[in-house]
Amino acid sequence: MFDSVITNWIIVGLALSLLELMVPGVYLIWFGLAAFVMSIILYFVPMMVFTTQLIWFALISAVFALGGFFFYRYLFKKIKEPAEYQNLNDSAEQLVGRLVTLSADCEDNQTKVKIGDTYWLAYCEKPLKTGDTAKVVGVKDSLILVIE
Asked: How large is the greatest C-alpha to C-alpha distance in the chain, in angstroms?
């Protein structure tokens, strides 16, 4: 393309870095950085054969991609999920701490409670009667509410 191999690797690095802006995911930037590193290596070793350049580019790309993988894994482990989003898709867990009214007497440690327009099966240790108010203290098997 151009007379200088160094310029070609810089252009490849720029192209890959710009593609990162258009393509979903975060992986092309590492290949772009590897191309920039190749241009620096070729500045110091100008007579490298193209096949050797490709091998070095593949190795440097692998190192950068693995480094990026571990960097993002570390970064996402540090980010804490807000408390209001932790039970977003678990409707039973969202009911913990809520006061409910029993729809049936507690027999064999089980009863039903109506929350909104849904009846939930609830586990209770105390003998409660229809109309009693209880507090949801936990969830068992994502379906049964444990009430006190």
From this structure: 89
